[in-house]
Amino acid sequence: MPSKSLGETLLHGAARITEPLAQHDLARRVARGIEDASRSHERRGKTDIVRPDGPIVWFHVFGLQGALNLVGVIQQIREEMPEITCLVTTQDQVQDFVFALRMPVGVLHQYAPFDKPAAVGRFLEHWSPDLCVWADDALMPVLIGEVSERNIPSILANVDNIDRANPQFRWLPSIGKPVLRRFDQILVTNDVAQKQIKQFGAEATVMGVLREEALALTHDEARRSGMSKRLDGRPVWLATKVSVDEIDLVLDAHKKALRQTHRLVLIVVPADPDETERVCKGCDALGLHYKNSNDLEELPPRTDVIVARGFDGLGLWYQMAAVCFLGGSLTAHGGHTPLEAANLGSAIIHGPHVDNYADIYLRLRDAGAAIEVASVASLVEAVTELVIPDRAAAMAHAGWMISSEGADATDALVEAIWEQYPMGAAE
Hints:
With about 425 residues, this protein is of the alpha/beta class. About 45% of the residues lie in helices and about 15% in strands.
């Protein structure tokens, strides 16, 4: 553990003197709506959450997008060691609903404390993290110094431009150099960032850029092979996580698409598993022949629809279908993540209501991996066009590229975490 430099000592003293001013600034920010009034005490290092038992890995980022870029990292950590609690702190306000929806279950969120001694002390005393992962360019010298003083292993990751984020380091190198040296490991996005770090006398490894990820869903290969034989080359499309008010729209689209695409099969996965009976009744009303997914030992040639209950077999359905419509998007439900479908090679169709994942859908559309529809007629048109193998394959490849573009960075950071984690990686 490096001792405090003169610059750090002076900075720490100035931070202690100006801490009362930070309280005043917080009140002003709350009044302007920049801070969440109900959680402003978190900026003072206080919390309403009881610290969970067991180890805590603490991630710090600037805002919501930075947090979401850690999804793949957190999922891998939790898969290997479920007993670990992951805590994410942010500087910027986040939408609690979106954070809870898109982050893995059980991840805790807090606002970062002021970079002032008392606030930092309260925060670290309460949470007592076992490892700190600072995945943001902007550094907080008092907090980082205190983490080091307490012998908490720390990683600086996903660094893109340390100079731009910390302009004070250019005219106060006596602060910048020792702060960077406090980290046990530094991972940067590219060679330019690596050179910047070296100018401060520290070493860094290039990791690439973190992106939001979803771990690939598992599927039973023997079951997939059997299903493929029973389908006997029939074109298949999937409508998954379909909300109750979309069921009739999807079935109507399939009925119309059958007129244009011979032997077309639809697999329907309702968003609510209890709505499978609703799907079956809708099929009866339209004269569509259906089979339940738990009764597929035989698949009669006249089967038009496979009705699936629950999400356990979702990995299989993505594998079976060249085209996937993601529900909760034709009507105003905010949509579901498209990354699972992109990971497993489906061309993606969605409605206009995808606010919950708007950034990812935009990236997919820009890459030519997704098509937006707004009606039954446009859904029919998209399905009948995309079941043509060549078009679906091109879209699926583009989607896979988007879904996997941060994979190398995720793996690099996970490896670094296990290298620094006090108890090591799970065996």
